[in-house]
Design a protein that fits this description.
The structure holds 2 protein chains of 2 kinds. In chain A, 50% of the residues are buried. In chain A, α3 runs antiparallel to α4. Chain A is α+β, with helices and mostly antiparallel strands. In chain A, β1 and β2 form a beta hairpin. The longest helix of chain A is centred in the middle third of the chain and has 26 residues. In chain B, strands 4, 5, 6, 7, 8, 9 and 10 form a 7-stranded mixed sheet that branches. Chain B has a 6-stranded mixed sheet with strand order 2-18-17-11-15-14, with no helix packed on it. Chain B has a 5-stranded antiparallel sheet with strand order 1-3-16-12-13, covered by helices on one side. In chain B, a hairpin with a 4-residue loop joins β19 and β20. The chains are: A alpha+beta, B alpha+beta. Chains A and B meet through loops of A and β17 of B.
Chain lengths: 376, 428
Amino acid sequence: MNVTSLTCPSCGTPAEGDSNFCEECGAALGASPPPDGAPRVLVTEAAADEPSPIDDLGSGPISRATSQTYAPAPPAAGIPACASCGGEVGPDGYCEQCGVKALSPRDHFREQPAPWVAGVCDKGIRHSRNEDAMALSASPDGSGAARRAVLVVLDGVSNTDDSQVGSLAGARAALGALVVPLPVGMGTPEGRLAAATRAMSAAVDAANAQVESAAPADAANPASATFCAAVLEGDTLTYANVGDSRIYWLPDGGEGVQLSVDDSAAQDQIEAGVPRLEAETSAQAHAITKWLGRDSQGHEPRVGQMSITEPGWVLVCSDGLWNYASEPAALAQQVAAAATTDPAALALALTDFANASGGQDNITVALARVSPAPAP
Amino acid sequence: MAEFAATVYQNEFLPDGGTDVNAIVTVTCSGAGTAGAAGAVGSGAVGEIIIVDTSGSMGHETMESAKEGAQAALAEILDGTRFAIIAGTETATLAFPPVQAGPALAVMDASTREQAAGAIAGFRAAGGTAIGSWLDLAGTVFASVPEVTQRHAILLTDGENGEQPAVLDAAITRATGYFQCDCRGAGTDWKVEELRRVATALLGSVDIIGSPDEMREQFRAMMQTAMARGVADAQLRVWSPQGAQVLFVRQVAPTVEDLTDRRVEVNALTGGYPTGAWGDESRDYHVAVRLPAKAVGQEQLAARVQVALGDDVAAQGLVKATWSNDSELTAKIDKQVAHYTGQTELASMIQEGLAAKAAGDDATATTKLGRAVQLAAETGNEEATTRLKKVVDVDDEKEGTVRLKKAVDKADEMALDTASTKTTRIKK
């Protein structure tokens, strides 16, 4: 995504004067453009080598503008309803009905780019600000072979400067990188994964550039964040993560599975034989071993792919949710309890569940509802 | 153009499980202009009525000083203001303008001022006292000129009302919300409680005019204040969240007036309370709201306190609640809240103490007036301390140990009573 100095790289608001930060969202303006290997280049290469099966133009490089047939959800306009009671929020920032302080659009936001894809990003109860972020896009129709959804979640590290700015700008930059169809390489499973890994790495690079530029140059604790993305194209789910935000596949009525593998001290312990519950509740459980940011030691994502043939849910979430339901079965139980096929309703229900369980951290829940495969 | 501002003083922190939020809201009006001035808020015509007791009890000296007082008030009424003079006995008589039907308020100018002065000069003391009928006539006179929307009266009496209490109460009810009325009692034969009932309901002041030579100055001051009220009518509004309970709404400065029961519904969550006309001044309100307790760390709005002119909100103060388990934060009582809680108790201690004394219950009177002395000292209300010392001998101000004085000037006792609701502001 090319950034001009005239608009905010994070929210797109036109910048005024010589200000260094966006008046709207606080993101740093004039952020460095995406580094080499950014999505535009990648897509051009991939498309030139190997026409994408999804490329219905069938010739020439896919330009970004024509491939983006659906737009990311625009930022919510006006003042959203009270998150507590649904009442109208007054101009003084408090609910007209129940008096609860309205969450700022950064503290609680919801997106639903299509009826089958939705997410909630919430401050939780204990934290003073929301450093989680998400960015979603989806094709209007979620049932056909041409369906496509991108779910990106970044969890800004809470003891760093401006990570709430970096995580949101990073999530949107990653979405921008992933909004074009993933390359398929030579078409073999290995080639396909390798090509997808390159695309995911580029998305991580794009996000990383935003996270790095979020904090001032002299920040003592520059912003850092996790990265987590899932791309569903037809029946193929591609997922990638850096840090401890997670991707789950939760088929209806079946065994769920955690697809992502955390880059965390807890995961290291689990791999060394410590039981999951013990590892994830230990003092160092939330220490991540890989992240995005200026002080990162590298941010290569773990990337995987799977084929989805059953109906169910793709869930991308931050630890604000999985802290209270880490095992896929525990999450599946909460999903079953919500008894809905509406992703917006389920995202809210899972957010409410995490808040009701203590809301110790920011909570992000992004969901794609995968409906039964249409009859061939 | 008048401007209002609202400032909130409170400790917003509640302990875990805490429910009651107290706040003092200072409402300040500036740039009010003069009553009836072009462009004034709620711009309607202004009507003033001077009601003078002309009953037989007045006696020659009081009657003459009352006439002087009425003349002084008359002199303060601005040209162009609608006005009338009522002479009160066991019935009410429209002394000026001399009309039998139609508009009963004259427009003030040099000529009507002189004619009205002549009517006042002709007052003769005779007959009884029927305050209810005076209020009713004032209401009728105001109603005869519909364009008058800012209505204010001054009422002077020297004696106890001759009507049945229910008759006076009914008249007060009819006048409530229609016109404002400042009340003065001359001498010591009138009942403070009776006149306070009138003044409180009609958003006015009550005071004693102990000696005839104070008459002129008191009347002049009352009318000057009324003429400086460029804002015809303002409503105090208190919004509280669903499930909350407004415990009370009190004006606490310059005087204590409980407004709780005067709530009119603005909407399901908002109550409106009358405050009458405003000049350039500042008044303090104590608002207490009970909320359902929330989890530690939660923040919410406990009340929006607004000043409304008609349908327009002119100022708003936010009263908040934040639950915390930091006892350093939650244990503090806001200075303003503590001060006015003391001043409100002071007012009721004085009134209850004097009522007990009048009923011959010296033990209760001693306890209550003792507590009053203590509170007056604690809250720095020197005027109350001075007045209390004319009624009781103070042994220990800090402990509130007092003895009732053997001989008390009736006027001093009544002055203590009428001034009981006057509060002092905290020294900031």
